[in-house]
Fold:
Amino acid sequence: PEQIATIVDDTVSGRLSRIEIAAWLTALHIRGMDVDEIAAYTQAMADSGSRISFEGRRVFDFHSFGGLPGNKITPIVVSIVAAAGLTIPKLSSRAISSACGTADFVETFCRVDLGTDEVRHIAEEVGGVFSWTGATDLGPAGDDFITVQRPLGIDPRPQLLASIMSKKVAAGATDLLMDIPLGTEAKVSSFEEAKAYSRDLMDLGDRLGIRVECAITYAEQPLGYAVGPILEARECMEVLEGRCQGDVADKACICAGTLLEMAGIPDGQNKAKRILESGQAMGKFREIVAAQGGNPEVSSEDMVPGEFSMEILAERDGFVKRIYNREIVSVAKAAGAPNDKGAGVIVWRKVGSKVSEGDVLMTIHADREDKLGH
Structure:
């Protein structure tokens, strides 16, 4: 542990060059770590910055491994869980390789640049937070490693697990739900790999004093229909407003319900569904938005995508057999997402849908006409 802590401290304080950090990450990629070493690595990264203390209160959190376009459930889950009376200060990332991270779409309707003290205060006052991790000083070592790791094209398992868990430790989490999207083009592409991650995360949680549950979820096509900041914010609000059902609402209720059951609330999924359908979740959402400096009266109708658009039409009759997630992400990014908030893609037909020649398969939105191309 002392040697691992020294490497983390030397990285954060700038005593190691990028080449030396790259050598460390490459060693992790090739050699790996056992669970005890990952736990020590996690603690060292958590100690590299500030920590939030909620003075004995149970603190709930959830995290998605990523790799699923349109995974816009965070504000819905937080709103449901907070409406049930629990504390859930959810800190999310921006897009790294995707077309939209949670913080990228949440900032279209409220502040996400909350400091550590603001996160604690808002969580204590209204129960929930959906802010950006990068504005805090929680586990900053993970970000230092990621900046070196990204151009190497590697994602060492110990680094991934320690980066995730160090921020949970620093944020004071006691109960954590991990969403592991499973799909051909997701970060986790086999059920065996998903089960291995689940075992590692639960073992790691035991060593860190965090109760961890894992949900392996479907990721063979985008979640919902929208990919891109304003488009995802609109669909997220439509679910909260009760105007949109389907896979987004289902997944949000499954995740929120699991957290409720971890808190000892029976029949969690149905309880989560009732909180959503009754409007309680929307009421809590408005409270959190107001606390984070946004307009509490914001609605899905306020979320207007880029004015320039292009429709992609079906060239023949048939059924949708497969959707290539990476290609959807590439198109959304080419249109300007996530930096251009109005840019993105609406996927109108999902896997299994019957399609006739001339039907609209998807609509591409952009803030600038030249981003659409031809």
